[in-house]
Amino acid sequence: MFRPITPIVKNLLIINIALYVVAAFVLPNLSAIFALYHIQSPRFIPTQFLTYMFMHADGWHLFSNMFGLFVFGPLLEEFIGPKKLLTLWMVCGVGAGVLYSGYTSFQTAQIDAQISSFYTNPSPELFTDFVKDHRNMFKNSVYDFIDAYDRNPDNPVLIQQAKDNLMAVRSNSISFPMVGASGALFGVLIAFGMFFPNTQLMLLFPPIPIKAKYLVLAYGVYTVYSVIIDNPQDNVAHFAHLSGLVIGAGLVYYWKKSRKSFY
């Protein structure tokens, strides 16, 4: 049985759903302005650390985040109060965006190091290693180019083509924005698990009961695994999810230790 919807949860649902409708049907350019771009992208502006979490890629993305807020948010709001729930949502959302940007900047720095090495000493081996590390950014035709380059490693035309390919990958890597309230939602999940660890929940698929602490633990383990594996075919920002979990846990720990809070 779902709990009655609470004020902050209701307002967050309304804002997110309304902005999705506006971006999808009225102002399609809104998502491009509100989404969080790489900090080296010409489209990046600092306000995107806040606005990105009110944009969603599609209806399912919106539903999954808002359903999680609808399920876990009301009891949490009743327990810690509306101000703390809103603080939790906003701090975890903004914080996840900031940490994710730091993570992508680190990845870009690694790309820059590989490109610098190739520019210093161009070779088919270095180019092949780069393709292996970023194979999701290349078309299959790149392997024909590798064969040609491997047979003619000193050909200046092929070397320039290799450089162009490397720079294209770098350009693309900073062009994809992040949207969604998942970082904020994961903060709510970890808070729910820490405040109500033994609350029995019923999963939808499969329909089995599970305690909140085990559900959050499962989410956490899967998220860490996804960050470590870093599947190039996976377009989910798992590091942002992990950031939301960590920030949320830290915030709840602080509240529990604060003498001004009583739970």
Give an account of the 3D structure.
With 263 residues, the chain is mainly alpha-helical. The protein folds into two domains: 177 residues, Rhomboid-like (Rhomboid-like fold), CATH 1.20.1540; 65 residues, no CATH class. 68% of the residues lie in helices and 2% in strands. It has eleven helices and two strands; from the N terminus they run H-H-H-H-H-H-H-H-H-E-E-H-H. It has a two-stranded antiparallel ribbon. Helix 4 crosses helix 5 and helix 5 packs across helix 9. The longest helix has 39 residues. The protein starts with 6 loop residues before the first helix and ends in a 6-residue tail after the last helix.
Structural key phrases:
2 domains, Rhomboid-like fold, mainly alpha, 11 helices
Poorly predicted tracts of residues: none
Main sheet specs? 2 strands, antiparallel
How far from one another are the termini? Answer: 24 Å
CATH architecture of the largest domain: Up-down Bundle
Give the overall form.
elongated
Mean pLDDT: 92
**Main sheet: strand order:** 1-2
CATH class of the largest domain: Mainly Alpha
Radius of gyration: 22 Å
Q: Helix tally?
A: 11
Strand residues, percent = under 5%
Number of domains: 2
GO biological process, one term: proteolysis
Main location: membrane
Membrane topology: Multi-pass membrane protein
Family: Belongs to the peptidase S54 family.
In short:
The protein has 263 residues and is mostly helical.
